[in-house]
Design brief:
nine-stranded antiparallel sheet, 9 helices, 2 domains, alpha+beta, about 30% helix, Diacylglycerol kinase family lipid kinase, Rossmann fold
Length: about 300
């Protein structure tokens, strides 16, 4: 049986309309399904946990990166469910990385008649206060601060979504915050190696997928099937240099420039001289001076097409 978790507020309220169109297909085909709507931030986690107690074997998420991030946190045993995703968010970095169709109808038909599965990793963030999974990426510093303000700027996101330019909200807010950003020294420990200290760090992100922030290809080598995290460190650059490099990140060409450091590892511990914002899948409701990134030992089966 299929269980659907739908964020009706995705894409400035279009989520509900898209679901109503897809539900017609399910009814026409006499598909056995259950429907659950998220009502508030974090609700997707509780709904996913609830679904784990039903006889559903396929969990389909309709929403953005934040919604799928909530859902993976609610799945108690990653090996017991098949996950599927219909992207209707503004950034859709998970879908972009997994090369999923943008057409909701085509996505549903693929899910109902799957031909390609992938067993994908799930990221894990640990701070002294909390432990949380993520599907796309987690980061500390400037990128988390952008996510935080992006989520607050509902009017800007709504306007850009209406213009089908939702992914630009991240860029617009990033440019604004860059002017007042104050990079801090951070120390990173990769696996069991010696710690590395970086001065003037804007952010460090641990990527399970290639894209973040509505299309920035921060870690071009990231593969959610390789049991490795891809780390990006942005350090020691002037704000003008970052402005110049920002467009190159859309194509993953930024990694060859000085001040951009990328690594692959099983785990990474970040220590900052100051408490900073931390995000998971674009949801930046955490603050910490320490963050450890790793991968869950189990993968989850995912319907690609």
């Amino acid at each position: 049986m299929y269980a659907f978790i739908v964020n009706p507020n995705s894409r400035s309220g279009l989520g509900l309309k898209i679901w109503e169109q897809l539900e017609l297909i399910l009814k026409e085909r006499h598909i056995d399904y259950q429907i659950y709507f998220t009502r508030r931030p974090g609700h997707g986690t509780k709904l996913a946990a609830q679904i784990c107690d039903t006889d559903a074997d396929t969990l389909v998420v309709l929403g953005g990166d934040g919604t799928i991030g909530e859902v993976v946190n609610g799945i108690r045993d990653l090996t017991k469910l098949t996950l599927a995703y219909i992207p209707i968010g503004s950034g859709n970095d998970f879908a972009r990385s997994m090369k999923l169709t943008k057409d909701p109808t085509k996505a549903l038909l693929h899910i109902l008649n799957p031909t390609d599965y992938a067993y994908i990793n799930v990221g894990l963030l640990k701070t002294p206060q909390i432990e949380r999974r993520y599907a796309v990426s987690s980061g500390i510093g400037f990128d988390a601060d952008v996510c935080y303000h992006n989520n607050l700027s509902s009017k800007l996101k709504h306007f850009l979504n209406k213009c089908k330019l939702g992914k630009l909200s991240y860029t617009a807010i990033a440019l604004h915050l860059l002017l007042t950003s104050n990079p801090k020294s951070m120390r990173i420990t990769l696996d069991d190696q010696e710690p590395i200290t970086f001065p003037k760090v804007y952010f460090i992100a641990a990527m399970n997928q290639r894209y973040e922030g509505g299309g920035f290809e921060f870690c071009p080598k990231a593969d959610p099937k390789d049991d490795l995290l891809d780390i990006i460190v942005v350090s020691g650059l002037s704000k003008f240099k970052i402005l110049c490099l920002l467009p190159t990140a859309y194509k993953g060409k930024h990694t060859k420039f000085k001040g951009i450091y990328t690594y692959q590892c099983k785990s990474a511990k970040i220590e900052s001289v100051q408490v900073l914002p931390v995000h998971t899948d674009g949801e930046a409701d955490l603050r910490s001076d320490t963050a450890t990134f790793a991968l869950e030992p189990d993968r989850i089966r995912f319907i690609r097409s």
